[in-house]
Amino acid sequence: MALMFQRLARNYAKDGYFPTDALTIQRVLNALAPTPGDMRIIDPCAGEGVALAECKQHLGAEHTVAFAVEYHQDRAYQAKQLVDRCIHGDFQETAITPRSFSLLWLNPPYGDLVTDKAQTGGIDDGKGKKRLEKLFYQQSVRLLQFGGILVLIVPHTVLDAEFRRWLASGFDRVQVFMAPEQRFKQAVVIGIRKRNDASSDSYRSTLKALEQFCQSDDKPMLPEVWEEALYRVPASGGAEIRFNYLQMDPAQLADEISKYPCLWGQWGLHLDQSSQIQRRPLMALSDWHLALVLAAGQVSGVVHSNDGARTYVVKGDTFKHKKESVTFEEVGDNKTREIRTSLDVFIPVIKALDFSQGSPTFGQVLTIK
After folding, report:
1. Pairing state of beta strands 39-43 and 101-106?
2. Interhelix angle for 161-170 vs 132-140, to 10°?
3. Of 86, 35, 79, 85, nearest in space to 54 by CA
4. How would you classify the pairing of strands 335-354 and 311-332?
């Protein structure tokens, strides 16, 4: 089957971008098969979204929803045209529901982690080298549901002892091959997520197979024709999931508004308070009422006196003050006991800037307590 988006599947390195080539995508898809039900798939480093879009088509576009995250702006907006939902931004600044995806396609950025300024913690405990591939793996694998399929594409040299232990303890039916396009020396790892287990026979056999692959001088190539049992992508559980970017930029916000205009059509109903008729209270406000009004930010703006002669710009606020009192109590034998009581008191304060022309206090800031 020819790739639908092969025109976009360019294989080059630019700004740490190592897209999956068309031939590797096709051979990986040969090993995957859908199951009945709706599926969610995700790529946290989607690039132009080609690989994920091809996977969606292969599994059945009518039953598959594709989610993507991409840091580079141009590539992200290209991916938005190919997948269902795409966030332009840093994957570490996203909020995504864990264990909610049937398939994780992960071709992360390649390179060393020089510092730990991001406070990643735990990525390297002295047992392996700090790498971007490991960071993205640990932060994205939590999105994959148990029984879900992992497609991991990384340089084969990254599969050190630490990384192999992670894969063996978290996945069953792990198979690893060299990608057919070897410009970037990539390995393709496919597995089925399981609950972490570092003591079973499955763990030991998987770990041994991974070690043999890494130590071999004649590493197997991803086959052109998949003859083994297919990796069946399970249906996704649950209904709606959280897929949000915590640092929304203006362009994406405008895009969301255009998709959901009903929210802004009801702006006045939910948020616009200025159009409501202002009514005087039935009784004079107590100090406590005034404090609540000030704390709610309702005392602010331009205020005119009843005769129109005075104009102020006011801003209300409250602050907490401790009110202390001292009493003495006789305890017998000509002794007394001193009792200090401290109470929190909220004091309302109004700052007013006098804008009354001709007033002796014109331009001064007045404080009303």
Report:
1. parallel
2. 10
3. 79
4. antiparallel
The CATH number assigned to the domain with range 6-259 reads 3.40.50.150
Contact 35, 45 (CB under 8 A): no
Token pair 């390195």: residue: 13
Measure the CA–CA gap between 114 and 283, rounded to whole angstroms.
Answer: 67
Of the candidates 343, 289, 296, the one whose C-alpha atom is nearest the C-alpha of residue 315 is 296
Task: Give the span between the Cα atoms of 122 and 120, in whole angstroms.
Answer: 7
Q: ∠ at Cα 181 (175, 67), nearest 5°?
A: 65
If you ran DSSP here, which 8-state letter would residue 176 be given? E
DSSP H or E run through 210: helix 201-215
Q: What is the CA radius of gyration of the chain?
A: 32
CA distances from 98 to 140, 179, 337 (A): 9, 29, 60
CB hemisphere CA count around 10 (13 angstroms): 8
Give the whole-angstrom CA distance, residue 344 versus residue 322. 5
Q: Are 223 and 215 in contact (CB under 8 A)?
A: no
Q: Which of 39, 33, 25, 90 is nearest to 67 (CA)?
A: 39
Q: Which two tokens stand for residue 25?
A: 């995508």
Task: Calculate the dihedral angle through the C-alpha atoms of 261, 262, 263, 269, rounding to the nearest 10 degrees.
Answer: 130
Residue 21 CA to residue 136 CA, distance in Å, equals 20
pLDDT tens for the chain, residues 1 to 369: 445 444 444 444 455 567 889 999 999 999 999 999 999 999 999 999 999 999 999 999 999 999 999 999 899 999 999 999 999 999 999 999 999 999 999 999 888 876 544 444 444 444 567 888 999 999 999 999 999 999 999 999 999 999 999 999 999 999 999 999 888 889 999 999 998 876 788 899 999 999 999 999 999 999 999 999 999 999 997 778 999 888 877 887 777 777 766 656 665 665 555 556 667 778 887 877 766 776 676 777 788 887 778 888 888 777 778 888 888 888 777 788 888 888 887 777 788 888 888 888 888 888 876
